[in-house]
Each structure stands twice: as C-alpha cells, then as structure tokens.
Amino acid sequence: MxxxxxARTGEIATVTVDNPPVNALGQALRQGLWDAVAELDAxxxxxxxxxxxxxxxxxxxxxxxxFGKPPVEPHLPDxxxxxxxxxxxxxxxxxxxxxxxxxxxxxxxxxxxxLADAQxxxxxxxxxxxxxxxxxxxxxxxxxxxxxVEMATTGKPLRAPKALAAGLIDAVIQGDLLEGAVAFxxxxxxxxxxxxxxxxxxxxxxxxxxxxAEKAVAKSAKGAAAPSRVLxxxxxxxxxxxxxxxNFERETFMELRGxxxxxxxxxVFFAERAAPRPAALRDVAALPLKKIAVIGGGTMGAGIIxxxxxxxxxxxxxxxxxxxxxxxxxxxxxxFDGGVKRGKLTEAQAQALKDGVTGTTDYEALADVxxxxxxxxxxxxxxxxxxxxxxxxxxxxxxxATNTSxxxxxxxxxxxxxxxxxxGLHFFSPANVMKLLEIVPTPDTxxxxxxxxxxxxxxxxxxxxxxxxxxxxxxxxILKRYRAAAEGLVRRGVxxxxxxxxxxGYGLAMGPFEAxxxxxLDIAFLQREGAxxxxxxxxxxxxxxxxxxxxxGQKTGGGWYDYVAGDRRPxxxxxxAELLRGQVAPETGMTEDEIAAVLVGEMAAEGQAILDxxxxxxxxxxxxxxxxxxxxxxxxxxxxxxxxxxI
Length: 647
Ligand code: 3H9
Hints:
The protein is an alpha/beta fold. The longest helix is centred in the last third of the chain and has 21 residues, at 592-612. This is 3-hydroxyacyl-CoA dehydrogenase NAD-binding domain-containing protein. InterPro entries: 3-OHacyl-CoA_DH_NAD-bd (IPR006176), 3HC_DH_C (IPR006108), 6-PGluconate_DH-like_C_sf (IPR008927), ClpP/crotonase-like_dom_sf (IPR029045), Enoyl-CoA_hydra/iso (IPR001753), NAD(P)-bd_dom_sf (IPR036291).
C-alpha cells in the first residue's frame, strides 16, 4: 500500500500520509510527497491541497533509523522547498505531533492549521542534532527569533493555542480536522495568498541578545553540543540571506548527525521506547490496574501516591495510626500544593488530586485493590509484618509490591501464602518526578505479575527496567562502586573538590561527594554497620570516619565539605583534611578528564559484572538506569555506551 494517497473534493485535493507508527519521513514518504506535488501541480481542477495524516499523529519527524546511513534522495530540504514552490497552496492539517522534519514540512506549506491538542516543535537537539530542512531558518520568520530560539534550543513542543498566539500556525480547528482544513483552504483561496515562509522578513536582534542567549544555552546544555549549534544556525538565519542560512543549517546538521553525542542520544531514544514493552512479555497479559494502595506515607510513599494520582487512579494510603495517616496525607498535599505554586496546577486540580487519596489505618480497606505498593521503613521485620497482613486481606490475584532498595525481596515475600503475585518495584525519590522504576521479580514471581509491574510503569510514564536480585539492584550497586572508586581517588591524593568538579564537568549535576552531603552519609554508613554486625567483612571507608566524627552531610552542617548556615555551597573543609590525615596520599596531579574516565570506567565495569551475572538484560538497560535514576548525562549515552565509545 502506498504511504501517500490523493483524493479530490471539488477544487481542494487531500494528500493523506499513512506511514505507521508515527508517519516518519522515510525515503518512501519523501518520494510519495514529491510525486504528489508534481501530480497536483499538473491538475488544473485543483486549486489548493490539504496535507493530512492517518493514525495517531501528523508527521513526527525524519526517520531516525535512517540517520546512521548515507542520505538518499529526495532530500528533505528539497522536498520542503518543492512544497513551498508548488503552484497550489498547501495547507498542513496537524493532529498529534508535528515535530522536527514534520514541522519543517508544515513550514513549507502556505498555511498550517491544527487541532487544539496538537503540538508542534523542533526536538532535534534532544537527538544531538539541529533541524536539517529549514527549521531554524523558516521558524523565526513566523514567530520571531526569541520564540524560535526557545523552541529549538530546548526542544520543547508548543500546544496549538500557544503556537497560534506565536504565529506558527494560522488556525486552531474545532471538530473534524479534515472538514475544518478543507473549509479553511476554500476560504483561503478566495483571498490574496500570503508570501511563502522563506520569503517573509526576519528581525535582526542586536549582539547583546545573542550574547545573553549563548550564556543561557551554555548553562542549560551542560556539555551537550547541539543547543549552541542550533542557536548559531538561527543567528545565521537572522543575519544572512535565506539560501546561505539554509546551507549553514544543512552543513551543521550533517556534521552533528555523525557525532558520538548524536549516536548516544539516538541509542537512548530507542532504548527508552523499547523499555516499557520487553519482548519476553509480549504475549503475557497484565492484570488490570484500577485501584492501588500504598503502605506508608513518608517522602517515598507520598511521591508514589502522587505519581499514581497524576495517572488518574484513586489511591488508598495505609499508615499505622491516625497521626501517621494525617502526616502522610499532608505529605501528599505538599506535593500538589507545590504544583500550584509552580503554576503547573490550578487550586481546583490540586484539590481533585488530593481528593482521590483515602487515608486509613484499616487493612480491610484493601480487600478490592488491584495492587499494593509497600513503602515503609527499610527493615525486614517491619516489611514482613506488612506482607503478612496483606496476604490475609487482599484478593488472591492482587499484585503485592515492595519498594525496598536494599533488602532481598525473597526474604520479604517469605511471609506470603502465594508469592507468585509478589514483586519488587523500586521507585526513585521524588517518585512523582524521577522516571526510573526498577522492576525486581523473585524466582516465584509470575509472568502476569511481572507484566503488571511493567504496565504500572507505562501508566505512570516511567522508564521501567527489570533487575535481578543483588545488593542494591542495578542502580545502587553501580552507585556503590562509583562512590568507592571516588574514595579510592581521594586516598590516592586527588582533592575531593577536584573529583566533584570533574564529574560536574563530565555532565552530572553534582559530583559524588557533594551528592552524599546532600542526601546524607548516614544511610550508607548504617547499611555498612548492619553488615558488620552480621559478621560480614566490610572495610572501613573514609565516609565512615566522617560519620563517626558527626559529619553526616548538609543536615549536620558538614560532611565531605563544610557549609555556612543557610548556604548550600560546599566549602573545602580543613576539619575533613585533618580527619583523613594518614589515609590520604600527597596530592597528585590527575586531570579532570582522567578522573572522569576512571570513575565512569568503574561504573561500566560494575555494569559489565551485572550483565555477566544476568542481573540486567542489556547494556542499554543499565544506561537507562543511570540516566533516569542517577542524573548521568543523557548525551553521553550512559556509562556502558560511554565506555564502549571510549570516553
Ligand atoms: C528530524 O526530524 C530532523 C530533521 O529536522 C531534519 C532531517 C533532514 N523515527 O514514542 P512512541 C517510533 S529528527 C523513527 O512510543 P508515542 C518509536 O521508536 C526527528 N521511528 O509513540 C516507536 O517504535 P516501536 C524529530 C520513530 O505515541 C514508535 O515510533 N522528531 C520516530 O508515545 C512509537 O513511538 C522527533 O524527535 C522517528 N522520528 O509518541 C520525534 N519517532 O513501536 C520523536 C517515533 O517500534 N518521536 N518512532 O517501539 C516522538 O516524540 C514520539 O514518538 C511521538 C509519539 C510524540 C511522535
């Protein structure tokens, strides 16, 4: 079947694109559109053309799977120019998303109309590239340079009403898109036509504007190359003739397409889309999820409840007494009130989200829930007691999940009569924000229960990654090795502050020591102490020395660094130097690049061990864990990708 079909309603022709799943602009589609322009130009009965798409979306962009291969004709910039130069005006009728090359096609059309919930955007920077078919050159001619810079440097799409206000589209269609677009086209051909977008004027901001924009982009890009390159391309559009700017854009696009960063971001793009639907579970039906309960309303429980409410499901919160219920509900309310403060929610929306949470101490309330997620204190006895009660009151098919981060789920499930519906679901704090969800089945977990864990991940718009059982699962196990390696460098004489600076320079938001000061050194310390108490041979760490001296991080006024009250900026600590004296070699001259190479190499080595043991299914899964749970820079592709391509 052809990916492009043409129909005629009187003097308006309709070109329909049907190239599932997202109408990406592969070669066949580009050729089909090219031929359609020629055919309709040659048809004297046609006065205007509506371009519309079948399926869930308008053209979602270039076909990313083609990026690793040599470009094949017709090239996208030529196709956009061909549509723009068509003898009949084309009207892009947008539903779903018009992104990247899809939006560039729409920019070649004389008019753009869209359904109210459609979105348009230039997400190329999220793939390590810039638009390559006029996106940076035509967009500012419609909406002005500032809006174009915002769109193209962040990659964030705009909804149709905002796009209309910005001048990027000509109308928002209510009701049937095709009917509305045909009516729009009929009216438009009775008026003088506007200029093609390429022929419209563009403003030229002064040097100060570009300086500010460059500073802002350098700050937010944190090492990613594409945002500053897309800015340069828009500047060229503002300062050079159209054709020169198009050449500049194309050259930049072609250069970036072949870079390591683009390859990394493409790999992550496809891994993120594959993760929620593992091949092994393709034929396994998940159990329906209509009502979920969470045990424990602390920070983690409240975050999980908020995430479930955001997905529209009612939640029951169970706590051990009325005061704890009240505190838990207040923790949830704080999350939604924060949304109001940040302008993300109206008061009414926040209230509706809060109203969907029922707090109680009565386990009998769980008789009809489909899933329970336990998020109580990380202590085996406490957790077992919870599951003993759940086993007694819940439906036999209800999925029972623990949010443990370090305990062995098999030991928690020992109290359960039918452990096939038991699973580990490890959320990351704040659970309503962090994308990662580690899914940890036990040997007893049924395929349906596992599939339901993934279904929850999809429902909550998380990145679910399956992990086998080991100390810390995938993410915290690698974190432990990373921190130990960072301490190893300190022992070898590398200053703490230089290690943190190296990892920030690498693209993480924080280095390993600053991060520990923020989260608290005591949690890991207590785990080590627990293991020691059980007779395990756990060597004394530098962190142990600090905790024993009362330095647990920012909350105690100091950890690896000192902190002045009310100021979160770390200050190099003479006290720490004194405490660690004798443990630390004289200062060595390791560069920041060398430091990052060592630490990322250690992460990758632990990742390889995790793969070898069958704890993770693929290097891509490990990379998703580090990117979405631990702030590893996305454009580096994750530690496994980065070490394969030798950082
Ligand atoms: C570009 O356009 C460059 C140009 O400026 C210049 C060129 C010269 N290509 O996300 P979903 C697949 S750069 C190939 O789950 P949703 C995806 O892998 C591009 N495949 O759907 C998945 O496959 P599978 C700029 C693609 O409904 C399936 O489609 N455009 C592409 O949740 C469904 O995807 C973008 O960056 C693609 N471009 O969301 C847009 N896109 O079923 C990227 C998706 O085998 N796409 N697939 O796992 C999106 O943001 C979302 O897919 C979209 C739909 C919002 C459209």
